[in-house]
Amino acid sequence: MNRNRRTWLWIFGLIATIAIFYYVLTIDVFSKKQPISTAQKENIDKVNSIEEMNKIFLEMIKNQKKQSGRIVMEDSAANAEQSTELTTNTSDHQMNSMSGKEHSETNIQVSGIDESDIVKTDGLYIYQLTDATLNIIQAVPSSQMNVEKTISFENNVSPSQLFIYDNQLIVIASKYEEAIHTNGKMSKRMMQEWYQATAVLIYDITNKSNPKLTRELEIEGNYISSRLMDGNIFVASSHYPDIWILEDEKSADLRPRYKDSSVNNDIKPIPIEEINIIPEPNEGNFTNIAAIDLNQPAREMTLTSFLGSGNQMYMSASNIYLASVNYPIMPLFAKEKTNETTTIYKLNINELEMELAGVQELEGRLLNQFSMDEYEGHFRVAMTKGDTRDSARPSSNDLYIFNEQFEKVGELTGLARGERIYSARFMGDKVYIVTFKETDPLFVIDASKPKSPRVLGELKIPGFSNYLHPYDENHLIGFGYDTQVTVSKEPGAPPIVTTEGVKLSLFDVSDLSNPKEKYTEIIGGRGTYSELNYDHKALLFDKSKELFAFPISVYEETKNVQDSSTFAFQGALIYGVDVNEGFQLKSRITHHNNGSGYENWEDSINRTLYIGDQLYAVSPAKVTAHNLNTFNKVGEVELFKK
Fold it and tell me: What are the transmembrane regions (predicted)?
């Protein structure tokens, strides 16, 4: 990364951090947030005018002043952005319309709905985002791999994700510019003149050596998540306007802005009729969703927006769900503690049209997108409430089920008291939930009757799974950590739980009332970690090819008192998985210089994929190709000069 970009982004990050801290102080710490009302479609209104919207914001300012009192700082910033983004279905050996070879796809959550990633392939080329550049790599034939084109971006553009669709390459980036002031004025509380937008850059890659930027789109706010379905991209962003400017300019237009170069290059506010409000809104934040038709490049994107937050996204073929955890920050000497709540927004989608259809606020916190699912018209969500460390309000875990009208019709509450959810997976009418505190209970839940879900079976084992992946109808794979429990030397103190090596588990759920951990594999010791522990897209899985591959950094235990473990390996591990034989290590692939006793960022293999009978390992430094049967290296191209 060049020095100007690094410095520029560091400064912006520092400013954003300070702004978020102030925002939390002035809004969350002192506000006694009342739970929002459950809202169905008939209770949701459109904003009729800027004046109406500003009255809502002015009421928020008034309430904040009452609650924060003397703490409100008249000349400080209240503008903040909250960032996010960091499945079955690896789409096994799919054929891309523009490729001639069988190839792997990104590991996704919902079949038919693609998710953006840092590496994609079309069966002939590999597309890689790294260090603010985009590499287009000719991958076939593997013995003649070469970098066909490298695309660089301006210093104020930070690319993070990409899609491939036909002969189009779509890059999602954060874009920073000088702030676009409302009516030419700047709020007294604005700390810095920054404007942040989520940018969507669309390239025509018919000629891979000469890609053409054909369309640029911007949606004000920071990037949340995105999906691609049937040639339509849905992109969500979050924007906190500077509502305090209304004290100086009551007619200020605080609507999020957008740009679509298919129409013109003007930056304009979202139409007022596309902004939704729920009864008694209390969040001065816009969540925006843009829908872009890749099959009709001249068609303007459609937009919808609502007052509220959403930083986890789940999408089905018919609906988008955006969820946000509301963390109460209590005064230091508060006598009572308040549990977190999670607000979930449901949007109906029909091609490019989107409509806010309902809102629910539930007690507890949602872990990630895999805590949400839709099946046969019912939305299911798994949540944790309470605190694993607080005996006065111990944690427990719940499953809630909602109908098509987004009304709660069923629930299963009070699971695993004192523990929290570490992973969840919905497979048809069955739900699998992993909780943990000292051991790892795997719960098998029957949700075939939405009004009365019930636990069928439970398994307690050491360690925990961060991620659950379906293997077949009767088996699933757990990926997480082994743990060690040590009795505390302090009388009455709870046991000490330490995380050890990475753990693979193959669960047999053929008998739903008696799940079993059939096979396990422990990799490394304390300090070992994998990107798959927190990002499902790091997994390459293909059952028919017996492929289960993931990036990893391995540390081994040492008797040295000063260091509990030492660096041993950086790269990717390739396993075979079989219900009769368990896990078989097939290969260890590394781009690391074995003479180095520490990890190198540029050598970290962050994705593996296959094209035909070749396995490709991708790192910032290089791409290597390996025979899928022998795993001998058959090709290499360098990307990063050390």
Answer: 7-25
Same domain, 505 and 592: no
Burial (CB < 10 A; 0-12, 13-18, 19+), residue 490, is exposed
- Band (pLDDT 50/70/90 cuts) for residue 589 is very high
Residue 357 shares a structural domain with residue 377: no
pLDDT 10s digits, 37-77: 566 776 788 999 999 999 999 988 888 777 654 343 333 33
Residue found under tokens 């927006």: 305
| Residue 533 placed within a domain | no
What are the structure tokens assigned to 280, written together? 């008694």
As a whole number of angstroms, the distance between CA 540 and CA 574 comes to 9
Higher-confidence residue of 437 and 354: namely 354
Direct distance between the N- and C-terminal alpha carbons of the chain, in angstroms, rounded to an integer: 13
Query: Does residue 580 surpass a pLDDT of 60?
Result: yes
> Structure pTM?
0.88
Does 318 lie in the same domain as 407? no
Asked whether the beta carbons of 87 and 115 are under 8 A apart, the reply is yes
How large is the average pLDDT for residues 525-538?
97
DSSP 462-517: SSEEEEEEEEETTEEEEEEEEEEEE--SSTTPPPEEEEEEEEEEEEE-SSTTS-EE
Q: What's the CA gap between 127 and 531, in Å, rounded? A: 19
Q: Tell me, yes or no, whether 532 lies in a domain.
A: no
- Burial track 148-174 (b if 16+ CB lie within 10 A, e otherwise): bbebebeebbbbbbbbbbeebbbbbbb
Cα angle for residues 423, 429, 435 (degrees, 5° grid): 20
Statement: residue 439 has pLDDT above 60: yes
- Containing structural domain, residue 78: 1-366
CATH number of the domain bearing residue 500 = 2.130.10.10
What is the count of structural domains for the chain?
3
Question: Does the CA dihedral 155-608-509-373 come out positive or negative?
Answer: positive
What is the pLDDT of the chain when averaged over all its residues?
Answer: 86
- Do 352 and 494 share a domain, yes or no? no
Whether 417 is covered by a domain: the verdict is: yes
Question: Which of residues 523, 549, 579 is at a domain's end?
Answer: 523
pLDDT (tens digit per residue) in 165-186: 999 999 999 999 876 555 555 5
**What does the block give as tokens for 206?**
């018919």
Domain match, 475 and 577 both: no
Instruction: Say whether both 401 and 420 belong to one domain.
Output: yes
Which secondary-structure segment (H or E) carries 128? strand 125-130
To 5 degrees, how large is the angle CA 142–CA 146–CA 151?
Answer: 135
Residue 140: pLDDT band by 50, 70, 90 thresholds? Answer: very high
- Can you spell out the DSSP letters for 301-327? PEEEEEES---EEEE-SSEEEEEEEE-
Question: Do residues 465 and 508 share a domain?
Answer: yes
* pLDDT at 365 (0 to 100): 94
CA angle 177, 128, 111 (to 5 degrees): 100
In which band, very low, low, confident or very high, does the pLDDT at 485 lie, cut at 50, 70 and 90? confident
Residue 6, phi then psi, degrees to nearest 5: -60, -45
Q: Which of 523, 554, 573 is the last residue of a domain?
A: 523
531 domain residue, yes or no: no
Contact 393, 418 (CB under 8 A): no
